[in-house]
Amino acid sequence: MNGDVGVKGLSLGGTITQGLKQDDLFKFSPGTSTVTITPVLHPLGVPVRAMILPILDAAVSEKIREAVDTHLVPALPDGSLWLQDDHLYHATLYHASSHAKPVPASSSDVEAEYTAIQGVTASSCPIEGVLDRFIVTKSGVVVACWQVLSSGTEPAVLRDALGKALPNAPPPEGQMVREPSILHTTVARLLQPPGASASAIDASAVASAVESMSSALCGLTTTFNEVWFIEERDLLALALNGRYVKHPAPLTCPT
Q1: What proportions of the chain, in percent to the nearest 5, are helix, strand and coil?
Q2: CB-CB contact of 81 with 191 (8 Å)
Q3: Quick check: pTM over 0.70?
Q4: Gap between the Cα atoms of 128 and 78, Å rounded
Q5: 174-197: average pLDDT
Q6: 232 and which of 38, 48, 103, 213 could share a cystine (Cβ 3.0–4.6 Å)?
Q7: To 10 degrees, the CA torsion angle through 209, 62, 182, 161?
C-alpha cells in the first residue's frame, strides 16, 4: 500500500473494482453551490461475507471524521470526495466469500460459519490499536493505518484462526487483505470531479493534508473488542451505504 502520491501523483476516475469504473459506482448531480454524489448500488447474487473489526468508540470515530473535515476537505474541489460513514469505520479481517472469489452458501451454511466465527472470537482477546498514520493510495483511497499493541491478539493470529475455522473460504491468495499483520481503515475516497481535468486535484496538497491528519491523530488509541460477520447484499455495501446484515461476535479472552 503505497502512499507517496506527492511524488508519484494520483490516478483517479478509472477502474475501482471488478471492472467497474467511477461512473459505474457514483452519480454526480451539480447544484447551484455544491455537487451531490450518489452511490450506485449493484446487488450481488452471492453476498460478500466478511469479518471486520468495527471502531465502536464514537469519540475515536468523531476525531477521525473531524481530521478529514479539517484537513482534507479544504484541499479538494467540490465533488471530488466520497466520505466513508463514520459509524461504519472498520478494519477488514477475513472473507468467507468475496466479490472476486464468491463462495455460495445456504442460510444453514451461513449459520454454521457464524457459529465457527463465534468459537474463534470467544477464545481471542480484543485488539489494542494505535493510529500510526494516514495515507492516500494512488487510486485515491484514504486510509488510517494502525499499529497493534502486544497486550491484545495479533491480527495475523486472528486471521489464521478464522481461516482454519472456515475451510470453504477463499485461500490466502484469494483474500482481499493479503498481508496478515496489517490493520487499516478506509475513511474516504477521492473521485475525479465531473467535467474536470486530471490536474483538478493537486496531489501535493492532498499529500500535505493527509500528513496533517497524521500529525493531529498519531497515537490515537482504540480497542477492537468485537468482530462483525457481515453479509453484504450490494457490492461495497459498507463503503456505499448499501444493504448488509450484521452478526456480532465479541472478542472475549479465554478464562
Answers
A1: 30, 35, 35
A2: yes
A3: yes
A4: 36
A5: 88
A6: 48
A7: -170
